[in-house]
Amino acid sequence: xxxxxxxxxxxxxxxxxxxxxxxxxxxxxxxxxxxxxxxxxxxxxxxxxxxxxxxxxxxxxxxxxxxxxxxxxxxxxxxxxxxxxxxxxxxxxxxxxxxxxxxxxxxxxxxxxxxxxxxxxxxxxxxxxxxxxxxxxxxxxxxxxxxxxxxxxxxxxxxxxxxxxxxxxxxxxxxxxxxxxxxxxxxxxxxxxxxxxxxxxxxxxxxxxxxxxxxxxxxxxxxxxxxxxxxxxxxxxxxxxxxxxxxxxxxxxxxxxxxxxxxxxxxxxxxxxxxxxxxxx
Amino acid sequence: xxxxxxxxxxxxxxxxxxxxxxxxxxxxxxxxxxxxxxxxxxxxxxxxxxxxxxxxxxxxxxxxxxxxxxxx
Lengths: 281, 72
Prior knowledge:
The structure holds two protein chains of two kinds. By secondary structure, chain A is mainly α. Chain A contains eight helices and two strands.
């Protein structure tokens, strides 16, 4: 009987996921990519496509309502001497217009400032949901969201390029950089076309996704560690407190990264649009 | 922020140079590494044209970076 118990205990320790939190002497339940898989609240079918309403969709909808509501309320009755809400709204809008659009595109970019403002605030608020208590998932850690935004940006900068430089002209300027010996074009042109048309949107989406995914995984790891170490043994209390302090520090760092990633996404979008507006020299 | 005639202070080149370099390197390796890999499959070799393609891709990408960003 004792041999059976020993065998059972050995099996339980090696089998993934069968440890119990109460005993506290199993391995550390390290968070993996599984924590991003959520059950949908509701499922419905439309036109043969299945829609899952998960927490991400709900958080995205809340983000949309927040942003649209804020800007609507801020600029509903614009005055020359702004009210407090309007000042904050102006701060946000002017930040994107001056630091991103005018720096990178110049005057011709005024047309795109509303798009860039929307992009910046949407990405930032979606990122912020990682550290807001009820949400706790960065919406942009689901690849679909950055991929959709990146697809939009790709369509826009290609359309702008084609409209400004003509269809043939745009691709010729992209594929044939000037000042290169003609024979080298055979090697260089496929690289240029591939990297501008395919690699750019891919890196734009994956950069945002990977940063948010990794940040959330990091925060989850330290939070679980703080909890797990707390239930183990007296020495664990010190480690648990350290882990908790680290979680707080990493949350602050994560908030910085979220704002930075939103800024980089918008900056690169502006840069691609600016590059499409002017012919490469 | 903008010069008097409306052109941007920061030329687009300087702000997207870093990520463009990454893009070109990845693109070069993908295109010519892929071509080398397909050539390997076509000729039945184990791993002959694939590394050659990768190196050609990297060389080409670095040359493009020089042409677009490195020339004064």
